Amino acid sequence: MKKKIFVYQIFTRLFGNKINTNLKNGEIWENGSGKFNDISDNVLKKLSDFGYTHIWYIGVLAHSTATNYEKYGIPHQYPEIVKGKAGSPYAVRDYYDVGPDLSVDIDKRLDEFDSLINRTHKAGLKVIIDFVPNHLARNYQSIAKPPSIADFGADDDKSLAFHPQNNFYYIPDQALDLSRIKRKNQRITYTEFPAKATGNDCFTNSPSLYDWYETVKLNYGIDYLNGRASYFSPIPDTWIKMRDVLLFWASRKVDGFRCDMAEMVPLQFWKWVIPQIKSKYFNIIFIAETYNPSEYRNYLSDNIFDYLYDKVGLYDVLRDVACGYRPASDITFALNQVGDIQHHMINFMENHDEQRIASDYFLKDGKKGKAAMIVTSCINVNPVMVYFGQELGEPGMDEEGFSGRNGRTSIYDYWSIEKIRRWNNNGKWNSELLTEEEIELQSFYKKLVVLCNQQNALSEGLFYDLMSANYENQGFNSMKQYAFARSDGKDFLIVVANFSEKDETITVYTPDDVFRFFGFDIPGNCQAMPLLADNEDKFVFNYFSPFKVRLAANDGEIYKISFL
Questions:
Q1: 30: number of CA atoms within 13 Å, CB side?
Q2: Total-model pTM
Q3: Residue closest to 161 by CA, chosen among 151, 150, 169
Q4: Partner residues linked to 287 by β-bridges
Q5: In this structure, are residues 104 and 35 in contact, taking their beta carbons and an 8 Å threshold?
Q6: Stretches in the chain below the pLDDT threshold 50
Q7: How far is the C-alpha of 383 from the C-alpha of 363, rounded, in Å?
Q8: Crossing angle of helices 330-337/316-323, nearest 10°?
Q9: Which pLDDT score, from 0 to 100, does residue 542 have?
Q10: Under a CB-based contact definition with an 8 Å cutoff, are residues 330 and 372 in contact?
């Protein structure tokens, strides 16, 4: 039974796209779009076999695009307030609908998403989607909401910059001015009066290209322009509307929400809304995108959020260590910052906001991320995310259009990813279409993820950092190597990562305290068996002598220790 959460993050529009035109700034009819139906039973079964427990489908909610779907009753779109041709999945234009780009039969798009949810559950996987609470699309208009629910802004007093029961913030008596975002030869047809505040807390009528100009800020009862005074009684209307959104998607059997920019809305809202959702759907999980460590414990208090992003901690440190910018010993300090809540942090080495490991801006080669991925996955019992294509070494170095060549896979453009296109060949993994390097890297990810749930010491056990015992160890370079132990009181594992650019022979001391910590007697001879290696070459060592291993560059190993 899988105990440790592993999230496979799929950018839905790109994952199943079979069209390989990839024209820069291409329209959907030129570059194509993946569909819900492309994520087949076979694909989901394979992902389950690879050890994943949850699929995070990005870009599901209907968001603004430059593609015209008016003949299907979908409101007119305005390219001047859309990033790229496909638009940002975080500029939601209808919280109660899914994107028509993702459906085969546009009139049945919600049914097709429901079918994907059912297929995902049938494969033994759970479904996570985005919840975007801070902002919505500039041209938001719901055509799919229940009749009993008023649209956002429908009852606002637009003459006021702020009112606790307004859904938006306004710049009274001023029209929206798009002159600062206008691109060459672009025609401006979108109008907004009075102008609304922009999603990134930009309270002017003239957002720039550097603002989230395609979005508007939602009002949760905080008067930003008057000392951030809060008005939470009576409950702001936006809170109620957002609760209804969460209940709607939970009722459609969604198993979890990744909450975008959770720190940009008041903590009081989360304390109010999450218990209400969980009281009805008690197994649902909430993941917060967070970047302020000083607030982490507040977001976990009273069991509000289940998990928080560990971006500015472990991710940033591991990235720097892998690139040779910081010593491996800094990993210890990053872990100490969240020591008491580490099991609530969600770890990753890639996601849609970050540069790909194999990009020119990171390690230039996906297999060079092995050491970091071993540490990320094995450090504790907390969840781990893998971004689609990461396990194939996707470099993210295409120049798709709006995004440019930046080492990130575009979230704004219609595109297809060649590595994924070969892997997801009509819903089947065809090894003949993958290179040897891709097969090797994918096999590594599969073995690592599966091991983390096969080994109770990794999925349920405690953690012991071995760095303090090895700082003065001449056979251990704390600049380039990292080691720790995991145990559930039955099995005992030692994990060693080599961040060096060359193969290294490494010695690791295991102090008396590590055995006492896990409840073991001090051993004599021990046998170590590598779990990640293709071979099972066991070796015997004496506890009183250093534990000596040979590791490949940018790699690592998990050793299962038996006491003889």
A1: 12
A2: 0.96
A3: 169
A4: 258, 307
A5: yes
A6: none
A7: 24
A8: 180
A9: 73
A10: no
